Amino acid sequence: MGATPVQDKWAWVAGPVAVALGLAAHVVSGGGAPAMPVLLGFVALSALAAQLVARWIHGPVLLLLLSGVAQQLLFFGFEALGGSFSGVGFLDHLHGQPQQPVAVPVDGQPASGELHAADLMLYTHAAAAILTLVVAAGVSWLARRGRHQGQRSAAFR
Q1: Each residue of 50-69: pLDDT tens digit?
Q2: Eight-class DSSP state of 109
Q3: DSSP annotation string for 67-105
Q4: 10 Å Cβ neighbour count for 22?
Q5: Are the beta carbons of 85 and 93 closer than 8 angstroms?
Q6: DSSP characters for 20-50?
Q7: What single DSSP character describes residue 13?
Q8: Element of type H or E holding 142
Q9: DSSP SS3 for 55
Q10: H or E segment at 62?
Q11: pTM of the full predicted structure?
């Protein structure tokens, strides 16, 4: 049997990174954080999924698509199982202020300078998906670089 490539051994890192970035995006944009056992379950499942996906998906476009799908699934999971903390955002959690309702304009369009809560949630989760792709690509690049340096040093022995 052939040895497992180094980048496959480190692929699991993208899963916990996706959960951490998704949680940060969710909480900063006003969502609630689930309890710690739920978060640990999300981390375990996402690490497993990242390890499995790394064997078949190698293109950046497909990785970005899967990262976006992962963020959507995390959003739905956080919404369904969240609510451990009340507040409008991360800073409100620190100060303990009560949740404030979001003012929606009558015509359905946000006023100038105001950002609707759903839009903010979408933008922050999209940014988390992009950052997850960048981190996953960086880990893969570092693993390949380490493998190539190891092969070079073995060739000189």
Answers
A1: 888 877 877 778 888 888 89
A2: S
A3: HHHHHHHHHHHHHHH--SS-SSSHHHHHHTPPP-PPP--
A4: 28
A5: yes
A6: HHHHHHHHHTTPPPPPHHHHHHHHHHHHHHH
A7: G
A8: helix 117-155
A9: coil
A10: helix 60-81
A11: 0.68
Range with the poorest average pLDDT among 26-30, 34-38, 81-85: 81-85
Q: What is the CA radius of gyration of the chain?
A: 19
Cβ atoms of 18 and 67 within 8 Å: the answer is yes
Largest CA distance in the chain: 74
Q: How many Cα atoms sit within 13 Å of 12 on the Cβ side?
A: 8
Asked if residues 31 and 78 have their Cβ atoms less than 8 Å apart, the reply is yes
CA angle 29, 32, 38 (to 5 degrees): 130
Q: Which tokens sit at 73?
A: 């699934």
Is the separation of the CB atoms in 87 and 99 below 8 Å?
yes
Residue with the larger pLDDT of the pair 30 and 42: 42
- 23-60 in b/e form (b: 16+ CB < 10 A) is bbbbbbbbbbbbeeebbeebbeebbebbbebbeeeeee
Identify residue 8 by its one-letter amino acid code: D
Side chain identity, residue 101? P
Torsion of CA 50, 12, 54, 7, to 10 degrees: 170
Residue type, 125: H
| Type and span of the H or E element at 59 | none
